[in-house]
Amino acid sequence: MASEFTVSLLRAALFMSGAIVLVFCARRPLRRWADAALAYQAWLIVPCVAVAAVLPTASVALVRAVPALRPVPHLAFRAVPLAPDGIDTLLVAWAAGMVVLALWFGTAQRAFLRQAGRLTRSGAVYVSAADAGPASVGVFRPRIVVPHDFDRRYSPLEQALIISHEQTHIARGDAVVNLLACAFQCVFWFNPLVHVGVRALRLDQEIACDAIVMRRHPRARRAYAEALLKFHTGTHAMRAGVNCHWQTHHPTKERLMSLQLTPSGTIRRRAGRCIVALLATAAVAATLGARAEQAATAPSYLVEMALDAGGERSTPRVLAKAGEPFAVASGAWRVELTVREATTPGDVWLTGRILRGADIVSAPTLLARVDEKATIKTGDVTLSLTVNRARLQ
């Protein structure tokens, strides 16, 4: 089933790219006209589209063949995979890239904790033994970590604003969002738009947090801006993928300009929520519509099978569309198959499973020529297939 997984992964990456571009274009107008929090929430459209891109579009069609076959023992131990080297290489490269990026995120997180050193609790915050923070650290047990010179670097008002900022991160569960964003980066490491989108997401996360703090302290804009500007004079903290840092490499100018935005009224915020909901609905509907259109225009194939198990033969014929799974059952045996077009003209991919009851005997993947016989042999079971082009009536 390797090729089916690869197709699903690439399809999800393609539709996600369109969703990222949509949100990237809408985020600034939403922030200026409605609310910074809505620009941040609009990024939920991307995972919604990703889920819509991989949802099954049709149930497995079942064709029951006769006569019934007699049981054939000891097949599972002699199953021979027929997967081609090209698909294996592609999957290995994808898995290697995912593991490398996950290790990079884990190393960055561990390096930050090592840099922070021993943490000493002081009221609502934990003071690091080094220059780590300010930051909210942890997913399940979040804590606010501040540098050892926090009380000297920032004024009392600035300290209160920074702590309020990090408490907002914790209250909203932004560390969980960052963890899921890192997971998307690992799975879709080959898509540069995913990394660009995560960077924009983190910026919108900070600006939305700034806006909430400013609504609580409307007269502290100057002090808040001065605390942001001290990032350039202070020591840069190492950035980990999950933590929410006050001192980050986000564009400080854009954060400062966002502080000048006038808070929108209730009507605008409600209208903004409606706009985000419409964008999400349109994006998901477009994804499902595109998949339905692909399924409608997919070529059809007449699959002629000859299943021989212990001398008993069954010869079903199935009319199936490319990419739509179907199944043939006979007695205790069941064959599940999916036919897909290959990149080479005249070739098709055949992926599926051969089952005896609930036990999987074999999960073959093979490349076959149209109108030519392909054979899968597993112990005493032989499955011959001939795929012919056809049209659905």
SSE arrangement, N to C: HHHEHEEEEHHHHHEHHEEEEEEEEEE
What count of helical segments does DSSP give?
A: 11
Low-confidence runs of at least 5 consecutive residues: 64-87, 233-238
Distance between the termini: 29 Å
* Fraction in beta strands: 15-25%
Overall 3D geometry?
elongated
Radius of gyration: 28 Å
Question: What does the model show?
Answer:
The protein is α+β, with helices and mostly antiparallel strands and 393 residues long. It has a domain at 95-190 and 209-246. It is built from eleven helices and 16 strands. The chain has helices at residues 2-33, 36-41, 45-54, 85-116, 150-153, 156-172, 174-187, 192-216, 221-229, 252-259, 266-297; strands spanning 61-64, 119-122, 125-128, 135-137, 143-146, 244-245, 300-309, 312-314, 317-321, 326-330, 333-341, 347-356, 359-362, 365-369, 373-378, 381-390. The strands form three sheets. Strands 1, 10, 11, 12, 13 and 14 form a six-stranded mixed sheet that branches. The protein has a five-stranded mixed sheet with strand order 2-3-5-4-6. Strands 7, 8, 9, 15 and 16 form a five-stranded antiparallel sheet that branches. Helix 1 runs parallel beside helix 8 (192-216) and helix 1 packs antiparallel against helix 11 (266-297). The model is unreliable at 64-87 and 233-238 (pLDDT under 50).
